[in-house]
Amino acid sequence: MTCPICHKDTDPKYKPFCSRRCADVDLGRWLTGSYAIPVTDEEADETLSDGHEDAPPIRPN
Q: Annotated binding site for Zn(2+): which residue ranges?
């Protein structure tokens, strides 16, 4: 298995990453919203029509 950040071999201590650095890079991406599932306008409309009219629209980054 290779590290999803730098593609080096993984270290069992930091699996699935190779190092603490790559684990921190991944965490930073999650915290800043870099990882997101894209949503089309149609999907956002469906979400709101499912009884969540008071919810704000979901906007892709």
A: 3, 6, 18, 22
